[in-house]
TrEMBL record:
Residues 3-26 are annotated as: Disordered. This is Cyclase family protein. InterPro entries: KFase/CYL, KFase_sf, TAT_signal. The lineage of its organism: Bacteria, Pseudomonadati, Pseudomonadota, Alphaproteobacteria, Acetobacterales. It comes from the Bacteria. It comes from Plastoroseomonas hellenica.
Length: 302
């Protein structure tokens, strides 16, 4: 049975309660402030046999898209040198919302509460014709940290949790206990819902909705101080929200209220199948100037 945890009628905390952020009024990095050299060294020490598990999806025009997003890719033959060497050259033109397709990391200004982004910075004060003057995805930088996989689908013994299932705090606690995991400060937390099985096999179903965390689970996770929350579904959070009036509230909680990045459309099946709960996590967001997000190809290093 679906145990809804979202309080009906939820609305985001007022500015007086969320600003300044815990990192001060001028902060623009949120929980990324917790990622330091020591944490990166600790993550590197988790690399034992050098294996790589890719956590990113292949970008292609036929992949699932939220709403009107697209990734149109056209092969372009650009050049053919005549004799003697007859060198040919090929490229492609891609027309895409490149920050918001495929496996993708959300920067803070991707979402607002009214006209405010993270730390009560006003949208109008940082938005330009091309992007944001502050907090763009180009400012995040390389992420090397400890990753943990919280396997809720595995806990339930299900290939995938059902659409619209709101993962509860109890689910998280039980999954963590079953896997004998520890959640540590500045980790990247990833939730396996199993929904990723629909990617590429039933794209219509994939974007129709999904299981995921709701407000209570998101707050519980953020209390454990992650720098990223990620999942194998398109919004990280449950969709539709059990509170039908609430539109993607976890987006606001993570990106706007607290300053925690979201990582969507992850490929988590191999980690889950191999029962890998802890690993070194490596990701380099694209340097899209002022971008709202970036498609990424993250990896788990074992
Ligand atoms: C959704 O897909 C709605 O989430 P995001 O906008 O963060 O990509």
């Amino acid at each position: 049975p679906v145990q809804a945890q979202t309080t009906p009628g939820w609305s985001p905390p007022p500015a007086s309660q969320r600003c300044p952020s815990r990192f001060g009024p001028n902060d623009r990095r949120g929980y990324m402030n917790l990622l330091n050299d020591e944490k990166r060294q600790g993550a590197a020490r988790l690399i034992r046999n050098g294996q790589v598990i890719e956590l990113g999806r292949r970008l292609e025009p036929s992949m699932p898209f939220f709403g009107t997003r697209r990734f149109d890719q056209h092969l372009k033959r650009t050049f053919m040198n005549p004799e003697p060497n007859r060198r040919g050259s090929n490229e492609e033109i891609v027309i895409a919302e490149i920050g918001q397709v495929g496996t993708q990391l959300d920067a803070f200004p991707h979402q607002t509460i009214g006209d405010e982004v993270y730390n009560c910075v006003r949208y109008d004060d940082i938005a330009t014709r091309t992007g944001f003057r502050e907090m763009g995805v180009d400012t995040i930088g390389t992420v090397l940290t400890r990753g943990v996989l919280i396997d809720v689908a595995g806990l339930k013994g299900q290939r995938t949790l059902p659409i619209g299932y709101e993962i509860t705090v109890a689910d998280l606690e039980q999954a963590i206990a079953r896997q004998n995991l520890r959640l540590e400060r500045a980790d990247a937390f990833f939730i396996n819902t199993g929904w990723g099985h629909h990617w590429g096999t039933n794209n219509t179903e994939y974007v129709r909705g999904c299981p995921g965390i709701g407000i209570a689970a998101a707050e519980w996770l953020i209390q454990r101080e992650p720098i990223i929350l990620g999942s194998d579904n398109w919004p990280v959070e449950v969709a539709p929200n059990p509170d039908r009036n609430a539109s993607l509230p976890v987006h606001q909680i993570a990106l706007v209220v607290h300053g925690v990045h979201l990582l969507e459309n992850m490929k988590l099946d191999e980690l889950a199948e191999r029962q890998v709960g802890e690993f070194a996590f490596l990701m380099q967001p694209l340097k899209i100037a002022g971008g709202t997000g970036s498609t990424v190809a993250p990896s788990a290093l074992l």
